[in-house]
Write a structure and sequence with these properties.
The chain is mainly alpha-helical. The chain has one domain. Helices cover 89% and strands 0% of the residues. The protein is built from three helices and no strands. It is elongated, with a radius of gyration of 22 Å. The two termini are 34 Å apart.
């Protein structure tokens, strides 16, 4: 667990205030990296779904089978879920900034 490693990194620092500040820095740094990674994964998934949806719609224009139509609907639903997630994030940010 990274937390234990962080505590061990600062065990030789006797000033508890400095120790706490360094620990907060490590937590913030870890959180920012984690959130950036998750955001990149979501954006990559959104791009991939948009590309697949475009190809499927082109395929459906020439040969609209039940399987193709079902796959299109599934891709659209996944894109809708990602849009809802982004919208909820924006609403949460707005609510937080009002405080």
């Amino acid at each position: 667990m990274e937390y234990q490693d962080w505590k061990n990194d600062f065990e030789d620092i006797s000033d508890k205030g400095l120790n706490w500040d360094l620990l907060k820095y490590k937590i913030k740094n870890y959180t920012m990296r984690f959130c950036s990674k998750r955001q990149k994964e979501r954006l990559d998934k959104e791009d991939e779904l948009a590309s697949v949806l475009k190809l499927l719609e082109q395929q459906a224009a020439t040969n609209a089978t039940e399987r193709v139509v079902a796959t299109i609907e599934k891709a659209k639903e996944e894109l809708r879920k990602l849009e809802i997630y982004k919208t909820e994030g924006v609403l949460c940010d707005q609510e937080y900034s009002r405080r």
